[in-house]
User: Which sequence fits this backbone?
């Protein structure tokens, strides 16, 4: 196979990645970031019609769509720790609350800011050369790529078994003996169901299992703590734009439902509308590519420094623990009553058989909006309704 033509890359350039994740994928992202070149990880499932406007927005100098091209690019730009830490973050695409996805742009960081960015992740999660990171989610998502990059930056190893499959993941745990893993609650539910039938593998190799991305049902959280080594399991709250809190499970057990306290170097506050804001250090700031209005709406000045929001609603208690209620844009007003979908989702997720749930509002002539729930899993509608009657006030109970 002939070597693909490769353009010269300069600091600030962007390279779009439209292929499945692999260890080489992670190494390329790290290698280019050390050189100030920003990879744009994109979903391989996008159609041509979906890709075109996104690529136009991020304006890459190169689009990589196959493994041979990726490996040629990595061979031309091999990773070299002597180049220093990454000069910024990958450009992940996010729609935030509404609209077409936009790239989250950290900008090209100077050496002190780049060093601070790398140190923050290393100090929080303890990345080390002996780590083996097991990747469960597609690497175009920000969290799994962030954990994989932190591992490689520390000299550790990354294992990418392929599309999520409980047998494949279980085999990887047995054979590769990973030390770290990022997952979402749906991964945990499927793994636990499989292990109930087959028996759990030896999990003593893990020192860190971090989960985020969706509310974790109480029973799943408690099973996680039971199965994995003491002190190894964490939940964090964040978004593609930035990270807010981190919470060891032992802290959660004392305050079920909390998302923990602000990460080091950050401050969490709540405005008069109940919207959460996070003050972040300079290396954690961002803009949305090509969307100055969206950027301006996300940031505000505070006495502690610039703070951003992604529109989430919540509260911060007297000890600094953060609690999430939902998103202003997701709010359902039914019969004049404010209903937060996140609260209803948490309750329904506790019903036996529910694997995943999304709650939303639809127009209703009598109520203004009525609450609806989409549920995945082997559960009868009557059981869901009974569970809702027992645990939710009438206005919060899904009508459909």
Assistant:
């Amino acid at each position: 196979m002939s070597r693909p033509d490769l353009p010269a890359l300069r600091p600030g350039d962007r390279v779009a990645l439209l292929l499945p994740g692999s260890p080489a994928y992670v190494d390329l992202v790290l290698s280019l970031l050390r050189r100030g070149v920003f990879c744009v990880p994109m979903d391989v499932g996008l159609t041509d019609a979906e890709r075109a406007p996104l690529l136009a927005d991020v304006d890459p100098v190169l689009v990589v769509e196959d493994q041979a091209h990726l490996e040629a690019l990595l061979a031309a730009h091999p990773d070299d720790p002597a180049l220093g830490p990454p000069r910024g973050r990958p450009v992940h695409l996010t729609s935030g609350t509404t609209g077409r996805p936009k790239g989250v742009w950290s900008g090209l960081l100077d050496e002190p800011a780049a060093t601070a960015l790398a140190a923050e992740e290393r100090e929080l999660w303890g990345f080390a050369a002996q780590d083996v990171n097991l990747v469960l989610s597609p690497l175009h998502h920000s969290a799994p790529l962030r954990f994989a990059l932190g591992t490689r930056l520390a000299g550790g190893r990354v294992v990418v078994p392929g599309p999520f499959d409980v047998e494949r993941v279980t085999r990887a745990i047995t054979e590769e003996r990973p030390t770290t893993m990022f997952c979402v609650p749906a991964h945990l539910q499927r793994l636990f169901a499989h292990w109930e039938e087959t028996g759990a593998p030896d999990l003593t190799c893990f020192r860190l299992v971090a989960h985020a991305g969706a509310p974790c049902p109480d029973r799943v959280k408690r099973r996680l703590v039971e199965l994995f080594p003491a002190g190894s399991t964490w939940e964090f709250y964040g978004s593609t734009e930035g990270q807010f809190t981190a919470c060891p499970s032992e802290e959660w057990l004392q305050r079920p439902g909390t998302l923990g306290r602000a990460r080091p170097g950050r401050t969490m506050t709540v405005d008069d509308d109940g919207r959460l804001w996070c003050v972040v250090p300079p290396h954690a700031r961002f803009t949305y590519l090509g969307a100055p209005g969206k950027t301006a709406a996300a940031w505000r000045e505070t006495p502690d420094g610039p703070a951003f929001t992604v529109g989430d609603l919540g509260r911060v208690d007297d000890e600094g623990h953060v609690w999430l209620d939902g998103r202003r844009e997701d709010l359902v007003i039914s019969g004049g009553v404010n209903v937060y979908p996140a609260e209803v989702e948490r309750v329904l997720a506790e019903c036996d058989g529910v694997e995943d749930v999304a709650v939303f509002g639809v127009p209703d002539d009598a109520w203004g909006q009525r609450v609806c729930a989409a549920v995945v899993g082997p559960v009868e509608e009557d059981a869901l309704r009974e569970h809702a009657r027992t645990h939710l006030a009438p206005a919060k109970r899904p009508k459909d």
Q: What stands out?
A: The chain has a mean pLDDT of 92. The chain has two domains: 14-324, 331-396. The longest helix spans residues 111-125. The chain has twelve helices and 23 strands.
